[in-house]
Amino acid sequence: MKVYISADMEGVTGLVGADDVQMGGRDYERGRRMMTEDVNAAVRGALAAGAREVVVNDTHSTMRNLLVEDLHPAASLVRGKPKPMGMLQDLDASFDAAVFIGYHARAGALGVLSHSFMGHEIEDMWLDDDRAMGEIGFAYATATALGVPVVALSGCDVACAEVAEWDANVRTAPVKYARDRFAARLRPADEARGAIEAAVREGVRQAPSRTRPAPDTGAHTLTVRWQSASVAQQLEGIPGVTRPGKDPADDRSTHDRSVRVSGDLPALFRLFGVFMGVAYALTGQAPYC
């Protein structure tokens, strides 16, 4: 079996603040070690379930966070940026299972370090106009559209509850329990890594018996509401991108800060990476406030 691991940082064991996850933060180097150990636990779980190939994608910020020399030797690593498919770079239908490690809740949720892709610049996102989502939902929908089942996720308890709304069959490993956006009750590190290993082992082990998602090549609609109307205005210059306009009956178009575009899910996921590049260039926002 081939197993794909997408690794973010905010949902990693022990991490609760910006200084834990931002390059230059006083605890960032410790955060890198914690992230690497969570990923290693996931790799061990995948191997115990019979995986013969494990690919890890470092997806946080600069995408150069995992300590290469300390990564489990059975895993290959996708590192650095830019990546056309960002958090799902190199994922394709040849994989038997996808695992999300260190993921976090979407913007607006009271989860640890919650946001959707860009600190506070993105206020809300919707799939097909009516389903609120963040990184978990967008990555889950895109992976399954590629025909790859998502089998396990680790993060805070709010992130674990969020993925269950997309698929109750996803095995979860809550490594901390949110008390606020920058506060949590932490599971002991060894216990948390054990939970990650067990969730991934069971998820990967059950993958062959699950109905594999059929590849989805149909059209979907992505709507993003930004903090800044300037971002929405600039994105409107991309062919196919529209602005819903000021419609009091449509909460997604508040203050005309939303953009909307349609396409198949992998194409939307890649295009969204372009959206973020434009937004970063315009706003220069730090990831957290």
Would you kindly provide a written description of the structure presented here, covering whatever features stand out?
This protein is α/β, with parallel strands linked by helices and about 290 residues long. The protein has 2 domains: about 1-120 and about 135-210, Rossmann fold (3-Layer(aba) Sandwich), CATH 3.40.50.10780; about 220-285, Ribosomal Protein S8, Chain: A, domain 1, CATH 3.30.1370. Helix content is about 30%, strand content about 20%. It has 7 helices and 11 strands. The chain has helices at about 20, 30-50, 135-145, 155-165, 190-205, 230-235, 265-285, and strands at about 1-5, 55-60, 75-80, 95-105, 120-125, 130, 150-155, 170-180, 185, 220-225, 260-265. The strands form 2 sheets. Strands 3-2-1-4-7-8-9 form a 7-stranded mixed beta sheet, with helices on both faces. The protein has a 4-stranded antiparallel beta sheet with strand order 6-5-10-11. Strand 8 (about 170-180) and strand 9 (about 185) form a beta hairpin. Helix 2 runs parallel beside helix 5, helix 3 runs parallel beside helix 4 and helix 6 packs across helix 7 (about 265-285). The longest helix has 21 residues, at about 30-50. It is globular, with a radius of gyration of 18 Å. This is M55 family metallopeptidase. It holds the Pfam family Peptidase_M55. It comes from Streptomyces smyrnaeus.
